Amino acid sequence: MVVLTANYLCKTGMGDAVEKALREMIPLVEQEKGCLHYLINRSKDNPDAFLLFEQYEDEQALARHSETPYFKRIVLDTVIPMLEKRERTLYTPVQD
């Protein structure tokens, strides 16, 4: 199992547009084989900050996710240009 967290800091005032794009991703990703959890969270303190929590069966499932046409269109082409900063971290759960 692999967990990915992504912290997005939007360019000022872009939070609503980023949220709209990320909401489009939710039903698409939830249908992916190997996706266990896909949670998008928006900061209560900063409307331009997001935390994504993603859990996949294995690294191959995560790699497949990153190759989907909708990931490329929504995340790479739409969301990332609206970000000031994007930090991604991979984790392996400690417990089985």
TrEMBL record:
Give residue ranges for domain ABM: 2-91
Report the transmembrane regions from the record: none
Query: What SUPFAM superfamilies does the record tag this protein with?
Result: Dimeric alpha+beta barrel (SSF54909)
Superkingdom of this protein's organism? Bacteria
- Keyword annotations: Monooxygenase, Oxidoreductase
Tell me the Pfam families matching this sequence.
ABM
An MF annotation (GO) of this entry: monooxygenase activity
Task: Report the InterPro entries cross-referenced here.
Answer: ABM_dom, AI-2_Isomerase_LsrG, Dimeric_a/b-barrel
* Keyword presence, Mitochondrion: no
Q: Kindly provide the name given to this protein in its UniProt entry.
A: Antibiotic biosynthesis monooxygenase family protein
Organism of provenance:
Alicyclobacillus fastidiosus
Query: What taxonomic ancestry is recorded?
Result: Bacteria, Bacillati, Bacillota, Bacilli, Bacillales
